Amino acid sequence: MTSWQKKAALTLACSISACGGPAPEAESSGAVAAVDEADALVVYTTNYPLAYFAERIGGDRVRVEFPAPPEVDPAYWSPSAEEIAAYQAADVILLNGAGYEGWVAKTSLPESKLVNTSAGLEERYLVAEDAVMHTHGPEGEHEHENVAFTTWLDPTLAIEQARAIRDALAELLPGAEAELQIGFEALEADLTEIDGRLEAWAAGRAGQALLASHPVYQYLARRYELNLRSVHFEPDEVPTAGGWRDLAALMQGHSADWMLWEGRPLDETSGRLASDYGVGSVVFAPVGNRPASGDYLDAMRANVEALEALPAS
Predict the structure, then answer these.
(1) Which of 105, 248, 258, 305 has the most CB atoms lying inside 10 A of its own CB?
(2) Residue 170 pLDDT greater than 70, yes or no
(3) What is the pLDDT of residue 34?
């Protein structure tokens, strides 16, 4: 059981004891008996946010596996034959949906085990505009087009995806509904906190022009009504001459002071942005993969703190 679930369960147990006197010995601890790891539900996911949500909700009831290596963007990763076999053997496979995991359509996975966590959100999908074919990182050449897929960057959508995970786990773990609800509610509270802080930050910057180094922030921009335009810069690469020209053209009608980056840009890049364009750099990690340290909530709070630290325009 996770620390969040233990705290909630302890509070519940104390309330029952105060109101109704001593409980039978089997119920007095206020916690569910530990689940043997061999008996835990095996959950495979296609990105880190889903893995984190499943861990928070399922606690000791689940063994969550997210096999993508840390140096890749899971949206453009393809598992090996051995990893696909592990997915096939899982009890449940959590998908992000919105076209996120392209490899799934080319692979034979048991339909009965697939849970598309954004299946009920199609009407809230966004179209990714300005598709560009380019190459970066070990995942190689890819294109940003069609449906935008970083749905979880809108915390309200992330909550709905977490709710879908709770429901899927409840079907496979009869009798654990109350325990799963405790985990879900704790996660929901944390995501709601993130949402509130972002909403407060955005309220003070209504209409302010912002830039994004990559077209991955569509749901963030819609949720908080950000005036955000994207280029196609990579944190670990110096932009090409064409890339700088594209930025200059974009800024003729979109005079921004700050650019959001998926990771820390090279000093050469951030230096030129500041000196030649008057644009500062701030990291807002999408957290599609596991962060180098901490967990999803730590990373998202760091994102919010980075925005809150920006000077008012």
Answers:
(1) 258
(2) yes
(3) 53
